[in-house]
Amino acid sequence: MLLPFYQEEFIEAGCDEAGRGCLAGPVFAAAVILPKDFFHPLLTDSKQLTDKDRKALRIEIEEKALAFAVAPVDHEEIDRINILNASFLAMHKALDKLTIRPEFIIIDGNRFKSYNNIGHQCVIKGDGKYYSIAAASILAKTYRDDYMDALHEEFPLYDWNKNKGYPTTKHRLAILEHGICTYHRKTFRVTDPQLTIF
């Protein structure tokens, strides 16, 4: 059972990102402020849901949220400032776009760069613990998936409509055979032993 808020005193936004571990494309982040009475029985970490459920929940979240925003940071910026800093930047950009100013922020993970001196709390596996982080994970994931589906039309050989830029066997083999394209992150090594073994 997910919890509605980390604290009750301040207007709270949940933040999460999608695409950190990818070899190609941008990282996307979302920020969501939900009403006090928000509830949805299906809402949880986006990785635990089917694509169909994520898309349905995205509609519900966007209709019911008090405020939400999504922002990308592209592959070139990721190469310039590294993926961790790019993830923080994407979250800050999403927070900048919110129509309601949050007074407290909860973030999925264990690290965050302070935003406008607003109090925050990092929550490990927070997308499976708090509604607003779970909602942010769904928005970040679905917006990024849509973006990668569009890039797939331009570069179909990398199978991005299925792997969304993650290092699957097929994606890595395509890079080894054909090289990288303009959307690949040049600082990410396709032969890194930490990636999927094929």
Portion in strands: 15-25%
Number of domains: 1
What overall geometry do the principal axes of the alpha carbons give? Answer: globular
The CATH topology is what?
Answer: Nucleotidyltransferase, domain 5
Strand order of the largest sheet: 3-2-1-4-5
Helix content: 25-40%
Second CATH tier, the architecture:
2-Layer Sandwich
Total count of strands: 5
Report the biggest beta sheet as strand number plus sense, adding barrel if it closes: 5 strands, mixed
* Unreliable residue runs: none
**Number of helical segments with 4 or more residues:** 6
N- to C-terminal separation? Answer: 37 Å
Give the SSE string.
EEHEHHEEHHH
CATH class: Alpha Beta
Please, what is the CATH homologous superfamily?
Ribonuclease H-like superfamily/Ribonuclease H
Radius of gyration: 17 Å
Average pLDDT, all residues: 94
What structural category characterises the helix and strand content?
Answer: alpha/beta
Binding site for a divalent metal cation: 16-17, 108
Pfam family, one: RNase_HII
Protein name: Ribonuclease HII
Catalytic activity: Endonucleolytic cleavage to 5'-phosphomonoester
